């Protein structure tokens, strides 16, 4: 059976570890690597878009990182329970015209018993920024 450590129920230490692993995977900008943290039939809400299953996750992330250039993400543990984690995050990227953006948001994650994320609900807002106002994550 497929597993992704650490497994629930989460402690403060393992919840922080899960968040760091997610941040590292997303910063790789490798859609296939990222998708392996999710169940085969994962359910996402990303802004107003609904994504179902790993194949759609890979497609979504491939298109995302073709548009969002030099993407860099920072996640922070907000809260956790037995098999759920809430994070706040921000990330920066620029478009093909060179306009930089910072995205702020919150995610709610639900994991199955094997440590794979079954549900991901993300609320995200983008703000245009000047290149000199970028943060170094």
UniProtKB/TrEMBL annotation:
<dbReference type="InterPro" id="IPR009783">
    <property type="entry name" value="DUF1348"/>
</dbReference>
<dbReference type="InterPro" id="IPR032710">
    <property type="entry name" value="NTF2-like_dom_sf"/>
</dbReference>
<dbReference type="Pfam" id="PF07080">
    <property type="entry name" value="DUF1348"/>
</dbReference>
<protein>
    <submittedName>
        <fullName>Nuclear transport factor 2 family protein</fullName>
    </submittedName>
</protein>
